[in-house]
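Predict the holo structure. Ligand: flavin-adenine dinucleotide.
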Amino acid sequence: MATHCQVLVVGAGPAGGSLAGRLAAEGLDVVLVDRLADLRQAAFSSAALPRSAVERFGLPACVQAAQWRGWQLVGPGDSQRCWDAPESLGAVLDFGALRLWLAERATAAGVQLRLGLTALSCREEPGGGMVTDLRGAGGERTTIRSAWVVDASGEGRALLGEPPDHTLVSGVGVEWLLEVDEARWRSWSERLSFFMGSRWVQQGYGWIFPMQPGQLKLGVCRLEQAGHHQPPLAGELQSLLERTGLADAPVLDRHGGRIRSTIRRREPHRRGRLIGLGDAVSTANLLGGEGIRHALLAAEVLAPLLARAVRNGGDGHRWLGYHALGRYEAKLRRALGWRWSLSGRLARRTWLGLNGPRGDARLETLLSGLAGCSAADLSALLFEYRFERYGARALPYLLGWR
Ligand SMILES: Cc1cc2nc3c(=O)[nH]c(=O)nc-3n(C[C@H](O)[C@H](O)[C@H](O)COP(=O)(O)OP(=O)(O)OC[C@H]3O[C@@H](n4cnc5c(N)ncnc54)[C@H](O)[C@@H]3O)c2cc1C
């Protein structure tokens, strides 16, 4: 078992799995650890992606559970609005399969993958290297020494910790994987369906996404608001099951998770030789509750900078290594773009406002403004944050006037 490497990546999610493979492909000696013993387990993410992301990151058919080519928005009451495109607009991934594929690609490139290991803490040695303490599934302790450590452990930020002086906005979701007959599967296939309004989910939304034939993902999520009573999500999920006629469907898996972001993303991305990646540095977007493609993008941005830092930062050239990484935060901010930032800021207003009749009335106005859009316009609005497609009607909302 290696206890020395150039880069230790903690977390084999989309961010860490992708980064580890990229670094190994550059010839670096990389160890990738995850607390999960099986990367197919705890597949908490609904994993809906637009076509552009599937193509950009070369995601193969084996990780795509279903294609979607339309939108169905239900709410604020029972009214339904549908938009369909002639061709696929994206995929719903099997999140476990995605993690597995990334890890297999990484190991094929030379990464040493060690599962069932939880990173507990890390520290910089006086000589400049990093020492990370880990715990195995049976409680045994182990140590890995490396030149650099990447915290890709998701919203929990296992090594970086909570960003100081930066408030984290937090969303929480639960999702069930259901088994349904072909007829019921067909009625939900090929579309991403969302349920919005306070009578569906208080301060959040519900969804039904198709998976492979015979399976659907049904979930609910909401933004958390401290000091404000919010009904338990389990009850909202049960109500969604009943109102959509899916309450009798056998449940194949139950999972859930949290998305947390500082929204403005001004937190430090690095502490010495410890670098944050993906959800650990708030790349998840809370408006759409999605972060897979942003985590993959962050890995794409960091990989060449870190590879340069490892090569330049050998003994006696420590500052050169640091210098290479100096542009990481700015580059990532530029890659995510101002639209990402604007949409993140809209998230709080959009979701927290859905708490009663006033919020529902505003939602109704927003949704009726979408009547003239095509399915592709809606994708551009929701995935590319191209609010201008919505026309001048969006301006008062974007400016906070309504
Ligand atoms: C309910 C829900 C639905 C979602 N739906 C979508 C969606 O439809 N589309 C979308 O794009 N995004 C969605 N997301 C968000 C998306 O899943 C995340 O943004 C994305 O997974 C972030 O990738 P990551 O690699 O940064 O972190 P993660 O995917 O969280 O990966 C972190 C990894 O680190 C491991 N780990 C954690 N702590 C330790 C430790 N101490 N030691 C070792 N390993 C550790 C974990 O086991 C995990 O494998 C959803 C999230 C939730 C919660």
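The mean pLDDT is 92. Residues 328-352 form the longest helix (25 residues).
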